[in-house]
Amino acid sequence: MPIIKLEGHGYIDKIVTLGLENDLEVQATLTKICHDVKPIMEKYNWHIKKIKEFIPKERHKLKGKLYRSNKKSRVVMLLQLRKPKSLELDNYAHLLKIFLHELAHLKVVEHSTDFYQFLQQITDEFETDQQTLDQKKLFLIRSRKLRGRTVPF
Questions:
Q1: 117-126, long-range: CB < 8 A, 24+ apart
Q2: What is the pTM of this model?
Q3: Where are the beta strands (DSSP E) in the chain?
Q4: How many whole angstroms separate alpha carbon 47 and alpha carbon 45?
Q5: Is 90 exceeded by the pLDDT of residue 97?
Q6: How far apart are CA 115 and CA 110, in angstroms?
Q7: pLDDT per position as a tens digit, 33-52
Q8: Within the chain, what is the greatest distance between any pair of CA atoms?
């Protein structure tokens, strides 16, 4: 099983994938999700020891699962990243939704009204963070160097 250590992330230690076809794409997508959710994880001071790809036995039911490992009660997240029949990587938006769902379980364990309210809260926070980043990127793209200074178009 290929393992990626996320140096400098601080909130997720490593990613473990299955080593199947298109594994590099799976690793890249999961690394991007980890990077994108980092502000949420920082805000709530969440730490995940390992994110591990898995294929559930009942493929139509389970998409993700959290459990605590024996060592210092560190969290391990299991995620189904591939479509059941083809084993193609699922789309980014769907995987992100599953990831945020599993993160919400760090605060509210059971699927309840409180859980879904909290999931909506962190989803909204994520979207706000992404809009802020997109605005900063757009500003940098529209800026150009002129005599050593950055000047907007």
A1: 122/40, 122/44, 123/97, 125/39, 125/40, 125/43, 126/36, 126/37, 126/39, 126/40, 126/96, 126/100
A2: 0.79
A3: 3-5, 12-16, 48-53, 64-68, 75-79, 143-146, 149-152
A4: 7
A5: yes
A6: 7
A7: 988 998 999 999 888 888 98
A8: 62
